[in-house]
Amino acid sequence: ELRHRASPWQRNLGYPLAMLGLLALTGISVLIVCFHVLELLLDDAAMPRGIQDASLGQVSFSIFGSFGAALQVVLIFYLMVSSVVGFYSSPLFTRLLPERQDTPLTKIIGNCVSLLVLSSALPVFSRTLGITRFDLLGDFGRFNWLGNFYIVFLYNMGFAGLTTLCLVKRVSWAVQAELIRAFGEE
Length: 186
Description:
Number of strands: 0
Radius of gyration: 20 Å
Distance between the termini: 26 Å
Number of helices: 5
Order of helices and strands: HHHHH
Largest sheet: none
Helix content: 55-70%
Shape: globular
């Protein structure tokens, strides 16, 4: 219903641009993770351990300078939003979705706990994937398992593989549906 009530500009320009933006952000994040996997294979310094003596403002946390830092911020925000959407889309947690003016206190507390866990895991998640090396307000690089090559490597490979599989599946199904609809109308 929302799609039918949308203006032609929104339907013909807004939705395709939003979809292209999501595809681009997903592709960039998978590309960065693939480069991080190559770095892991070639250099031990790519492990997501804590940064020693890197003062804020003295060392750039991105190869591409300010543009790279802005891209890292956008990708981390995208990962945050996509993890929340994925969390609430999973069959196990769809009952946890709040309802407008009809949400019991236990469900509100469950939502707060879930969002707190997701937001606490985000710095370690983005650091393990190689999207950023910045520690913000905590030294997340001191976890012992971040020094284990096999865990970090498998985590990165799992993210890259599953994200690519999901992207290909989603895009190919949409293209198949459009082709069937186009050829079915003729």
